What we know:
By secondary structure, this protein is an alpha+beta fold.
Amino acid sequence: MTRHHGRVPELPEVESIRRQLAPLLTGRTIVGVKATPQRRFSRLDEAAGRRISAVNRRGKYLLLPLVPAPGAGDPAGRSSPDRELVMHLGMTGSFRLADPDPYVRATFHLLADPAGPHGGEGAALHFRDVRRFGRLSVVDAGDYSTIATLAQLGPEPLSEEFRPDAFHAALAGSRMPVKPYLLTQRPVAGVGNIYADEALWRARVNPHARRVGRERARALWEAIRAVLAEAIEREGTTFRDYAMVNGESGRFATFLTAYGQAGRPCARCGEPLVKTVLGGRGTTYCRVCQRR
DNA sequence: CTAACTACCTGAACGC
DNA sequence: TGCGTTCAGGTAGTTA
Length: 292
């Protein structure tokens, strides 16, 4: 599976993972789950005996609808999902199909796939997570009431549901500084610390701003869409062609203009970017371009 | 209800 | 070299 160069998975990374997992998991039946006891795992046993009917994404969450598999007393099986596997990668979560190591926290054993490339050989999906911030939950299909952030998740940034006027209204209705508010996932889904800094820089919005006017909100709306779309595109394309320098790809280093660039000159005005702590999170921005 | 604060978790980086 | 301390950060739970 994809390595993430030490980056925390945000929407583009999760979408990249979704695209890799979808052809591997869709239609496969989970026969068993083995997981280390963790407070962020719940009801995983209910995934057993169910078939993955899709691999979807909302924000940074992966959503796998689960359909009861035909059993002894249920020969026909049902076609609609009655459960859903909700997965969040946290800080360090990733998936792999082979080579489990001590950091694998959960393994989903899959029924042999007769149509698969290995002629029906059984397989397993391993969830690896060094820091254990990831979350794996089986819920009643469509019922996210136990996952507050998902239940209140804002619109998908690259969908038609994400509208500049509603986004402006959301920003106007919050008394929080704009960056921490973005990180709540409520005004828009999937923006984390990295792309928040990037989008705010692009839109010239100060991360501390508690009031964002219509024009600036519109610019931020556009910047969020642009930076996420560009990141998704890069995840899916030139990945392997870049020389790896100290664990990061060259494309990654050149792509980001704010995050991780503290002390380096702003690409627009040359002023050294500053790093502060806002809402408990490292925040890099330009004091000149991103005036209050 | 909103917003602010803290806990969770562990390897890496840093200081002496 | 080795050990102790600090940092990173998404989310959830608690408190005001």
